[in-house]
C-alpha cells in the first residue's frame, strides 16, 4: 500500500511583503527627518560633497601629474620605428633595359637619447612643480576655509531669524491679549471704539511681521541648503545651541590674532610658496643660457626584396647583414637667439618681484580683515550691552504703558509707539548679539580654533 504524504505549503502574501517594505521605508524616512544638523555636521558634509571643493582637489591632482611628469623627464627616451615601401612598374633592369617588376623595401630603427646637462633646467622644473603642488594643496584648503566660514554665517543667520520669528510671534500674542481686554473695556463703555480699531490694525500689522519673519527664516534655511548643495525640499533642521555673551569683553587683540594667523593661514602659505616657485622659474630661464649636452644612440637596419635580383637573401639574413649602430655626443652652445633667453630671464625677474608683491598684498588683506573683525566685534559687544539695557528699560516702560492703556489713561497711538520701540530694541539686541558671535567666531578661527558651538 502506497501512502501519500501531504506537505503543508506556506504562501507569503505579496501585500504583506509590500506592507513590510513600506513600513521599513517610513522608518528610514522618520530617522532621516529626526536628524538635527550641528554646525560641525554641516561643515563635514560640505567638505565631502561640495562641488567647488571637489574641483579644487581635481586641480591638486592635475598639478601632481605635472610633478610626476617632470621627474620622468630625467629618464632616457626610447623609440622604435619602421616603414615599408612597395613599388611596382617599369624599371631599368640589369641588362640596361626596361622591365616590369615589383620591389618591396622596409626600414627599422631603435633610438634612444638622454640629456646629460641642460643648465639644471629639468632639476629646477621638478623643484618648481613640487612648490606648485604644495601651493595647490593650500589652494584647496583655502576653498575649504571659505566654505566653512560661509556655512558659519548662514548657520548663525538661521539662529538669528529664528529668534526674530519668536519675537514677532510674542509681540503678536501680546497684541491679541490686549485686543481681548480692549473689547471688554469698549463693551463696558470705558474706552472708545476707536482704540479697539487701532489696536486691531496693529495686530494685523504684526501678523504681517510674523509672515515676513517666517519667510526670512525659510530663506536663511534655503541659503544654507544651497551652500551644502542640497535641494530646497530637503527635510532639514539645525541644532539651536544656547549661545550666551559674557558680561566681560573677551576678544583677543588683533595684533595677537594676526601674528598667529600669518603663520598657518593657507592664503599666506600659498603666496610664500609662489615666491619660491617664481624664484625657480627665474633659475629655469637662466639655465637656458648654459650649454646643453646630450647623448644619442640607436640601431638601424633595412630589408629589400625585388624580383630583379635573384636569388634574394632571406628577410632575417638581410636584417642582420644590414644592421648598423651609432652613438653620438651632442653639445649645443647658445650664442645668439634673438634675445629670447634675455627676454625670458627679464620676464621671470618681473614675475618673481610680482609674486613678492602678491605675498605682501595677502598679508595686508589678512591683517585688514582681522582688524576689521576685531573692531566690529568690539562695536557689536558694546551695542549688544547698550541694547540689552535699553530692552530692559523699554520692557518696564511698556508694562507701565500697557497698564495705563488698559485703564483708559492712554490712547492707542501712544501704546503702539511704545510697543514698536520695544520690538525694535529687541530686534537690534538680537542683531548685535549674532553679529558679535560671528565676528568672534572668525577671530577664533584665525587663532586655529575649530568652528563649532
CATH architecture of the largest domain: Up-down Bundle
CATH hierarchy class name of the largest domain: Mainly Alpha
Total number of beta strands: 4
- The number of helices is 10
Major β-sheet, in short? 4 strands, antiparallel
How many structural domains? Answer: 2
Q: What portion of residues is helical?
A: 55-70%
Mean pLDDT: 87
What global shape is seen?
elongated
Secondary structure class reads alpha+beta
Kindly report the spatial arrangement of strands forming the biggest sheet: 1-2-3-4
H/E element string? HHHEEHHHHEHEHH
Radius of gyration from the CA trace?
A: 41 Å
Give structural notes.
The protein is an alpha+beta fold and 453 residues long. The chain folds into 2 domains: 41-75 and 119-290 and 338-446, Up-down Bundle (Outer membrane efflux proteins (OEP)), CATH 1.20.1600; 82-117 and 294-333. Helices cover 65% and strands 13% of the residues. It is built from 10 helices and 4 strands; from the N terminus they run H-H-H-E-E-H-H-H-H-E-H-E-H-H. Strands 1-2-3-4 form a 4-stranded antiparallel β-sheet, covered by helices on one side. The longest helix has 67 residues, at 121-187. The model is unreliable at 1-10 and 26-32 (pLDDT under 50).
